[in-house]
Design brief:
CATH architecture of the largest domain: 3-Layer(aba) Sandwich
Largest sheet: 5 strands, parallel
CATH topology of the largest domain: Rossmann fold
Structural class: alpha/beta
Number of domains: 2
Distance between the termini: 50 Å
Strand order of the largest sheet: 2-1-3-4-5
Radius of gyration: 20 Å
Helix content: 40-55%
Bound molecules: calcium ion
Number of helices: 10
Length: about 250
């Protein structure tokens, strides 16, 4: 009862802006047979801009993978129809799915399974009972780690701007320019979701700065430096008054 009220409260807190962002963002599948827990995870991820899909049975997830592959899977180990470790093994041994990052949900008593799970190729684990906030943080960290290793990602806009994300290389009209890590991360965020407006707080979130004293103004300073360094390409980064920034080509 209390949990239902909590879920209702969380549902009503998701506003239209967040729904728009969810559409653009990473998709997380949740395989967890306890519906309340699955929903709680789902809602917390949605609040943080993720798209989610819940599965209560392993068989349903495995069937659905033929239609859509997620950016990350949250995998409960104790399932009624299949051992979570078997699910992990199946995914890791299948060429089409082996790249999917996996976070296992384990109970304290499953200490041993946790180790096997990591050996089977799970990326991380969270022990029940867990705080939703911690789980969301782990999801973000694993996805970030995963996307950092995408060395093949490239971006090109006419002959003006070329980015090789793997080589950390930016060319403006064929000329290499030097960006700081933070500037590079901001640029990557903006061009990866071209046309999408990011608030200053979303940008701060994405560049993963842990400095507690940081202010929105910091983003403006980084953007200013970034625009200057990008020369002609700098004007492609637009300020949307009262909201934030976007890359618009
Ligand atoms: Ca379970």
């Amino acid at each position: 009862m209390v949990q239902n009220l909590l879920l209702h409260y969380l549902k009503t807190k998701i506003n239209m802006d967040e729904i728009k962002i969810i559409k653009e963002n990473n998709k997380v599948f949740i395989l967890e047979d306890e519906q309340d827990i699955a929903e709680l995870i789902s809602l917390n991820l949605q609040k943080n801009g993720f798209r989610t899909k819940e599965f209560l049975r392993a068989a349903r997830l495995l069937n659905y993978l033929t239609e859509e592959v997620p950016d990350l899977l949250i995998l409960d180990l104790m399932l009624p129809d299949m051992d979570g470790l078997e699910v992990c093994k199946f995914i890791r041994n299948n060429d089409k799915y082996s790249h999917i990052p996996i976070i296992m949900l384990t109970a304290k008593s499953e200490e041993f399974d946790k180790i096997i799970g990591l050996e089977l190729g799970a990326d991380d684990y969270v022990t029940k009972p867990f705080s939703p906030r911690e789980l969301v943080a782990r999801v973000k960290a694993v996805i970030r780690r995963d996307q950092k290793t995408d060395n093949t990602k490239k971006f090109k806009y006419e002959d003006i701007l070329e980015i090789d994300f793997g080589k950390f290389n930016v060319l403006v009209k064929g000329e290499s320019i030097n960006l700081t890590t933070t500037e590079f991360k901001i640029l990557e965020l903006l061009v990866t979701r071209k046309g999408w407006v990011f608030s200053r707080s979303k940008i701060l979130d994405a560049i993963d700065i842990n400095d507690k004293g940081i202010m929105d103004r910091t983003v403006d300073v980084h953007i200013k430096n970034l625009r200057e360094k990008l020369m002609e390409a700098g004007k492609l980064i637009k300020n949307i008054r009262g909201i934030g920034y976007k890359f618009d080509a």
